[in-house]
């Protein structure tokens, strides 16, 4: 698919240059957009929402491709959606992807951290739940849940998808809920090992909502 009339876009909160364009040349058979995260049903975009109100979605090129400020037109057949899963879903549902604006970034500019989650049950109950599901203290920090400055990992989990499937179980049961303000003062916060940019390439199933805080973003 071709992206045209590309212009530099400077992210205000990140030292990253993006490249603003749109999906006006969209053809479903000419591009594969890889998603990584489920959407939240209660946050779905309402029908008849005006596309002019949408901020551009943010997508990454694959590692083998590069874009710079000398490019006016760019063609690719695959992209990774970083920010804008609800907008992309709504545009798909309404056959309106061609109306979306977008910002393209290079793969090596991606940074990822985990959302913080609030614990909604008693701490001891949560610890017992972890132990019942096979988690142990002082485990593998690269695949772990951090809670009360202690790492818990499951020796049976050898990839990030398994850890995040457990996170989905906790979210679905409302044992934990994501928070957006990482400065919130409470000792009932926990976090999961973040995925890496390379995980975006390899994961095959969608992660549960609010699994990743990916930058750059608008």
Task: Describe what you observe in this structure.
With 218 residues, this protein is of the alpha+beta class. Helices cover 17% and strands 27% of the residues. It has helices at residues 85-93, 123-132, 160-172, 197-202, and strands spanning 2-3, 7-10, 17-22, 32-34, 57-60, 74-75, 78-83, 101-105, 111-113, 116-119, 136-137, 145-147, 150-153, 176-179, 189-192, 213-215. The protein has a 6-stranded mixed sheet. It has a 6-stranded antiparallel sheet with strand order 11-13-12-15-10-14, with helices on one face. It has a two-stranded antiparallel sheet with strand order 1-6. A hairpin with a 6-residue loop joins strand 2 and strand 3.
Q: Can I get a quick summary?
A:
The protein is of the alpha+beta class and 218 residues long. It has four helices and 16 strands. The two termini are 24 Å apart.
Describe how the helices and strands are arranged.
Blueprint: E1 2-3, E2 7-10, E3 17-22, E4 32-34, E5 57-60, E6 74-75, E7 78-83, H1 85-93, E8 101-105, E9 111-113, E10 116-119, H2 123-132, E11 136-137, E12 145-147, E13 150-153, H3 160-172, E14 176-179, E15 189-192, H4 197-202, E16 213-215
Parallel strand pairs: 4-7, 5-8
Antiparallel strand pairs: 1-6, 2-3, 3-8, 5-7, 9-16, 10-14, 10-15, 11-13, 12-13, 12-15
């Amino acid at each position: 698919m071709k992206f045209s009339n590309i212009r530099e876009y400077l992210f205000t909160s990140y030292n990253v240059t993006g490249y603003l364009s749109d999906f006006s040349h969209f053809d479903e058979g000419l591009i594969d957009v890889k998603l990584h995260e489920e959407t939240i049903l209660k946050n779905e975009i309402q029908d008849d929402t005006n596309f002019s109100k949408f901020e551009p979605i943010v997508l990454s090129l694959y590692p083998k491709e590069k874009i710079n400020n000398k490019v006016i037109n760019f063609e690719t057949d695959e992209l990774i959606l970083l920010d804008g899963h609800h907008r992309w879903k709504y545009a798909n549902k309404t056959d309106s992807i061609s109306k979306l604006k977008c910002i393209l970034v290079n793969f090596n500019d991606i940074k990822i951290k985990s959302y913080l989650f609030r614990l909604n049950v008693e701490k001891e109950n949560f610890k017992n739940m972890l132990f019942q599901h096979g988690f142990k203290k002082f485990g593998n920090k690269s695949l772990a849940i951090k809670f009360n400055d202690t790492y818990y990992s499951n020796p049976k989990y050898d990839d990030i998808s398994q850890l995040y499937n457990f996170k989905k179980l906790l979210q679905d049961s409302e044992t934990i809920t994501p928070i957006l303000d990482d400065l919130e003062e409470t000792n009932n916060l926990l976090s999961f090992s973040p995925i890496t940019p390379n995980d975006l390439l390899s994961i095959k199933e969608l992660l549960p909502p609010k699994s990743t805080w990916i930058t750059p973003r608008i």
